[in-house]
Every structure is written in structure tokens, then in C-alpha cells.
Amino acid sequence: MVIVVLELRHLKTLIALREHGSLVAAATDLCLTPSAISHQLKELDHWYGVEVVNRRSRPVSFSNVGERLLRLADDVLPQVQIAQTDITRIVHGQTGRIIFSSECHSCFDWLMPLLNQYRQQYPDVDLDFAAGFESNPHELLQNAEFDLLITADPIALKGIEYFPIFEYESRLVLSTTHPLVRKEKILVEDLAEQTLITYPVDKHRLDIMAHLFIPANIQPKHIRTTDLTQMLIQLVASGRGIAALPDWVVNEYEQKGWVVSRRLDCVSPQGLRRTLYAGYRTEDKEKNYFEGFIKQLEKFSQKRTLYYTV
């Protein structure tokens, strides 16, 4: 029984012979000696019991067995190259998956352009979002249910780090004809008479509830929710209620003249200021593709801070 040990080197040799037409040229291309090429061909001839390559012709020609091996080489070698490239990217952390979760409905306004830039540098990394808004996102991050959490409320947990992305101001949003627009100083009691339009999340996770209404032991008259920022703005603009949104969201609609924003100086003279963080597992920083996203987030933070400082 003859055991045939066909190796990738044999297939590469056959391809080189087809491309260059001679043992000498093929050997030069493969960084081998002509005698090494000849030895490989003798192995093939011995295994299959027929001459695989006619070395006497100019250029060299192939028998039926040789032609079949060439077809095998054409199929196998490109797949091997693709696999080797993929493995190299995996080993060097160029491929993987990042699942995002956010406690901020309006974060997509600045996050999506950032993700589009990241995809250009790491095209083999899958970017996905966790479905829904969880009641315990920090614990889910710790348990690897997702990989990066956008939050304004970091919680000290083992193995979790938080990177401050940027500071923002949560501003009161009113219709252009709302009576509070004309009031010099807005008090929390004034807001208690209003319908608060907000996102459908736990009230303790809303800036205006957690840092204004709840500390004052006051509740808004009514609470109305919507998933979409555009719908929220439309409801406020039509006089259906008030809202509190981050400054980067309000600015766009205020410039269009749809709504008016006011500083919540009943919280502090500087208004209701918060810091947005990115939370992630410390161990994930060892992954090249994840470290690449954190670095991109740092650059974004520096540019945003500089922009708002200027």
C-alpha cells in the first residue's frame, strides 16, 4: 500500500512551474534550488505511478494527473491564503465583536458617526447593540452580556472600568410659546405643574428626575413617554409638555426654532451638568480591536472637549 503525503509545497511547486515554464525559474520564485524542485516531482511521480510533469518539454507540460493536481491547487491554495490571513487577524486582535448598550436614548447622534469611522479601520469587527434598555446594565456588563456601556452613572464593580467621554448639560426644553419661557427664574415647583415628556426608562435613570424632582420630593403632574427623540421634540413643540435633554440634542432643534431651552439653575447655578462614561471590562483592553475603539473614543473626547472649550 502506497501512502501519498501530498503537501501544500507540492501544490505551490506545480503552480510555479505552470507560471514560469521551467524548473530554474520556478525554483527562483519559490526560493528553492532546481534539485529541490526535481526531488518534489520525483516524489509525486513515485506516489502516483505516472509522470506528473514532463520536464523535457519547453515550457514544461503536465500529464492528466498533473492537470488534476493543478485544479486542486487552484481550489486549495487561495482558501489556505484566506485562512492564514484570517488567523493572523484573529491572533493580532483585528477581528471580533463589540456589543454596545446605552442608558442614553440620544447617544446615537454622536455614537453612530464614531462607529462608522471605526469600521473603516477594523472592517472585520462586528458591531452590534443589545436589545432594549435593561434595569441592571452594569451587572450585565460585568457578566459579559454586552461589551461596552454608555452611562452617566458609573458603579464601582470588580473588573469594570469607566472612561469619561465628555461632560454635558441637561437642559429644560419648552415650546416657543410656553409661559415658562418668559419667566426669569424657573423653580422646581413650576415644573411640578407640567407634563414631563421623556423616554420609557426607569425614572431614577432620568437626569431631571434623579437630580431635580426626586431630591425635592416632588413629582411632575403627568409623565408621557416616547421612544423617539424626534417625536419627543414634536410633542414639546406642540405644547403637550416639557422635557429635559442633553445640550447636544437640544441645540439642533433650538437652532431650527422648533423649541426653546433653558438652564435648570434651580439645580445649581451651572445647571444640571452630567458626565457621560463608557464602561467596559478591564480584561477586554487586551484585545487589539477593543483597545482600538477605546483609543478612538479618547480622540473623540479630546476633540469634543476642545470644541466646547473654544
Automatic annotation (TrEMBL):
Keyword Ligase belongs to the record: no
Principal location: cytoplasm
Location of this chain's protein in the cell: Cytoplasm
Keywords from the named record: Activator, Amino-acid biosynthesis, Cytoplasm, DNA-binding, Methionine biosynthesis, Repressor, Transcription, Transcription regulation
Gene3D superfamilies hit by this protein: Periplasmic binding protein-like II (3.40.190.10), Winged helix-like DNA-binding domain superfamily/Winged helix DNA-binding domain (1.10.10.10)
HTH lysR-type domain location: 6-63
Domain of life: Bacteria
PANTHER family in alphabetical order: HTH-TYPE TRANSCRIPTIONAL REGULATOR (PTHR30126), HTH-TYPE TRANSCRIPTIONAL REGULATOR METR (PTHR30126:SF25)
Family (UniProt): Belongs to the LysR transcriptional regulatory family.
Protein name (Swiss-Prot/TrEMBL): HTH-type transcriptional regulator MetR
Organism placement in taxonomy: Bacteria, Pseudomonadati, Pseudomonadota, Gammaproteobacteria, Moraxellales
